[in-house]
Predict the structure.
Amino acid sequence: MASQSESESQAQAQAQMHAQSLMKLDNKASKRSNALLEHNVSRPRRDRVGLGAFAYLFAEIIRYSQNRVLGIQDLEAKLNEIGQRVGVRMVELAMWREKTVHRETRVLQTLVFINTVVWRALFDKQADSLERSTESDDEYMITDNEPAILKYISVPKEMSSFSPGAFISGIVEAIARCCQCPARVTSHIVPADGLPLRTVILLKFDKEVMDREKRLEAGK
């Protein structure tokens, strides 16, 4: 009887210690969650996510998407779709932080907003160039010579036509649409001397957008 009582006491003590440990872990998790929720979204966070951690997450996104598609085009479309989810949230956050009371609806202002404000918020730098196509008035190009998200991405030879930047093009496409400037946005790796990952984001705006631009220009 005595040994049985001792066993029960030990079991109760262990259970109590386990419960206390769980409570401590729960309190720590609650404090971290509260700190995150109480963070002022109008100011950029100083404790930025490390590039290595983000690259690992992005690689997992690619692997996850690759297992659910049949080809390279489908994979790029999947990454574009994921990027669009980010873009919709990014435009609201960027406007809030910039204290902007109106949303850009003109093509050039929208492109400048993406090229500067959005790029700095996402990649901590401005895009390297913003150009208009010499062949078509409805096409513009945003160039990033060294996209941060591609730094640790290695594309196999059998997938040489695959552009991981489709994720970025999805972000840009969503923002353009939110600014009432819908466009077809694609990503292309165009290597240059010393810049093997140089990526060009090509925007081809809808005909209705360009017609609106012409009417607004004529009304000035």
Summary: The mean pLDDT is 83. The radius of gyration is 24 Å.
